[in-house]
Amino acid sequence: MTTAEDAAAMAQTVHIHPATLATPPMTTADAREIQQAAVDTATATYSAQGAIARWGDHEVAIAHQAIPALRWPPMTMTFALPDALASRPLAKGSAVNFSFRLQDGTYTVSDIQPVQP
């Protein structure tokens, strides 16, 4: 068998369409676009609304609404709290507006404000 025949036989064996094997290689421009998307996500600040589920010494769990920019559905999630915010606890069930960003691989609250009734 030739190399082309080997590739075709392998594609049939594992149910890969032969056209998939002809995918063009990634270009430098493609790699830059992917890297820029990673940088944009790492420096972005996101805002959301939710309710305090639990307040800890260095983290807060918030039942938040959907966050379309991240394609996140509504969920309860734990965020890291910087010391300046951790020292101002909010009661469980408090409605809040909050902002957060990805910092050192952890989603960290950068601002949190109770919603006034």
UniProtKB/TrEMBL annotation:
Pfam families: CusF_Ec
Alphabetical list of InterPro entries matching this protein: CusF_Ec, CusF_sf
UniProt name for this protein: Copper-binding protein
Species of provenance: Candidatus Sodalis endolongispinus
Lineage of the organism: Bacteria, Pseudomonadati, Pseudomonadota, Gammaproteobacteria, Enterobacterales
